[in-house]
Amino acid sequence: MIKREWIHAWLLLAPALLLLFAFTHLPAVQTVFDSFWSTPRGRRPAVFVGLDNYQRMLADPIFIKAMVNNAIYALITIPASIALALSMALFVSGKIRGRGTLRMAYFTPTVLPLIAVANIWLFFYLPGFGLFDQIRGLFGFGPINWVGQPTTALYAITAVTIWNQAGFFMIFFLAALQTIPESLREAAALEGASRWTIFWRITWPLIMPTTLFVSVNATINAFRMVDHVFIMTQGGPNNASILLLYYIYDQGFRFWDTAYAATLTVVMVAILCVVGIGQFFLLDRRVHYR
């Protein structure tokens, strides 16, 4: 009987496992394999080049620029998105008028297509006529080409990402806040604890597992962003806003250098694995309230 149930279980899992292997694991193995070969061109087949692609990558100034930009992008978007999402969740978790409408408004940017979001923000950033320059004009400031100059292009994309993903993370924080017994807050309030003390000593420790989950997702999002860059700046000007995934796209689909794109992909996945595993193993023991 147990063997029959075991066979039944594997038969139910087989379609999902087949799709997972065909579209995730097999391409991942193929990408690692391709990173050690040259790109085939026309009748010239691919040849084994060993670590030449990795040596080329380390000497590539655009790759270094993309990594620096991605580090800046991640250092801003991860904490800012988490802080904004938590602030929104705390606000809409209370008993306020129009709470459902506010929750829907906060979550709306998440359900919008990324291409549509990028185009909307392009209108906001339009020099002279956009929303931000109109507001600046009220205070006597001149227009700025937000996405067209190296000093602001990367930060313009960063702001769009924070606005877009904070509502998604808010849902997780909101669910975590609703699992906290109200009796804990009431007991602390009776003891004279302030709102800040209640948050710092009760709420924050109890939602730390959710915070860890959200931080891992925010880290992954920081390295897989390509839509906003493609629509708003295409990595420019002068590679000022180029990110690693967009550089991979550029090499693989614009210049058709698939071997080098595979090498960059291996490095990106390795970075995500190290950061993700590090977050779980280093922080997991500290996120549970005891």
From TrEMBL:
It is found in: Cell membrane. It comes from the Bacteria. This is Sugar ABC transporter permease. It is a multi-pass membrane protein. It holds the Pfam family BPD_transp_1. Coiled coil: none annotated. Keywords: Cell membrane, Membrane, Transmembrane, Transmembrane helix, Transport.
